[in-house]
Specification:
The complex is a heterodimer of chains A (about 80) and B (about 270). Chain A is elongated and about 60 Å long. Helices cover about 90% and strands about 0% of the residues of chain A. Chain A has 3 helices and no strands. Chain A is mostly helical. With about 270 residues, chain B is mainly alpha-helical. Chain B has 2 domains: about 10-105 and about 145-265, no CATH class; about 110-145. In chain B, β1 (about 10-15) and β2 (about 20) form a beta hairpin. Residues about 115-125 and about 130-135 of chain B have low confidence and may be disordered. The chains are: A mainly alpha (about 80), B mainly alpha (about 270). The interface of A and B includes residues 45 and 63 of A.
Chain lengths: ~80, ~270
């Protein structure tokens, strides 16, 4: 069944390619956040809150890809 | 070979006066009843020297109050009750999907296809044959419970409610200045920026709804697949991960709402 095969490839590509960018982004975010905490340990609470917010924004892009993949898979 | 039961939308269990009651709605009702009971139990006997339940709730609410204080400053007094309600509700919804039995206990339902009256005889016979096959062959498994956050209706409703309240708060505190953020005719550049702001306001609704739904639904799919591949011991670390993700998502939703509240209720600086 070529159609189902194409669908499976599309699903995998959607989430696979969509996860690259946010993965790199979250990595950079957390590494910079940790650097900042290392330099200035007393601001840890503030940096952590902002970091989690940034992660949430970055992760949203991966979630969009995931939603597309889920729609392709289950409809 | 047994197949994995995963559906994108919540299944209807029964209809109540024409309104379909889905399994996620049923779970939401149970969680709501538990939350109301907990609120009554904690607030009915507040003492100066707290009991264990009161102590836990005080620590939880106090910690999160300080977290929002950093973002909202003096406006925290107005919006904290709403944000904390969001947090408690979402965390209860997220974790409700992790209990044993949720998604595994269910009923078998015969899906009967009603044949249309105006169909051609051949098609009608075909449909009848199909229905016959289904009735005798396989019936569809419908789980009795499903995490409320794994239903797009719930998360979308929460996102609409939150963004609606943010617009109301902005209008109430800034008045006409708030509308000027979106429709600004002072010069062409500001006009384009205002249009972009307007679009991003709608994008926030979608991103709110899909972030929560995507995370929790993906977690459920992950748990189902892992339990299907290696049923013994292997799902335990993933359960721990899902507990953590449920907490983070419940925290991120009101945290983002708090940031948007502070953006909507503060004047643009030039």
């Amino acid at each position: 069944m070529p159609e189902e095969g194409l669908k499976a490839i599309a699903t995998a590509l959607a989430i696979g390619l969509g996860a690259i960018g946010p993965g790199i982004g979250i990595g950079i975010l957390v590494s910079k956040g940790l650097e900042a905490i290392g330099r200035n340990p007393e601001t840890e609470g503030k940096i952590r809150t902002t970091m989690i917010l940034g992660i949430a924004f970055t992760e949203a892009i991966a979630i969009y890809a995931l939603v597309i993949a889920l729609i392709l898979k289950f409809t | 070979m047994p197949s994995i039961h995963i559906t994108l939308k919540a299944e209807t269990l029964f209809t109540l006066a024409g309104i379909p009651i889905s399994n996620s709605l049923l779970t939401t009702w149970i969680v709501m009843a538990l939350l109301i009971w907990m609120a009554l139990a904690v607030s009915s006997n507040i003492r100066m020297i707290p009991g264990s339940l009161q102590l836990i709730m005080e620590m939880l609410i106090g910690g999160i109050h300080d977290l929002f204080e950093e973002i909202l400053h003096e406006k925290n007094k107005i919006y904290f009750s709403f944000l904390m309600t969001l947090f408690i509700f979402i965390i209860a919804m997220n974790w409700s999907g992790l209990f044993p039995g949720v998604g595994t206990i269910g009923i078998y339902k015969n899906e009967e296809k009603s044949t249309a009256g105006f169909a051609t005889p051949v098609a009608a016979i075909k449909d009848d044959l199909k229905a016959e096959e289904k009735r005798s062959g396989e019936s569809v498994f419908v789980p009795l419970f499903r995490s409320g956050s794994a239903d797009l209706n719930m998360t979308f409703a929460l996102a609409l409610l939150t963004m609606g309240y943010i617009q109301y708060a902005g209008l109430k505190t800034l008045g006409l200045d708030y509308i000027k953020k979106f429709i600004n005719t002072s010069d062409p550049m500001n006009f384009v920026v205002g249009i972009l702001e307007l679009i991003s306001e709608f994008a926030r609704i979608v991103s709110f709804a899909f972030r929560l739904f995507g995370n929790i639904f993906a977690g459920e799919v992950l748990l189902t697949v892992i339990a299907f591949l290696i049923p013994i011991l292997a799902p335990i670390p993933f359960l721990g991960l899902e507990v953590f993700i449920g907490f983070i998502q419940a925290l991120v939703f009101p945290l983002l709402a708090a940031v948007f509240f502070s953006m909507a209720t503060s004047k643009a600086e030039h």
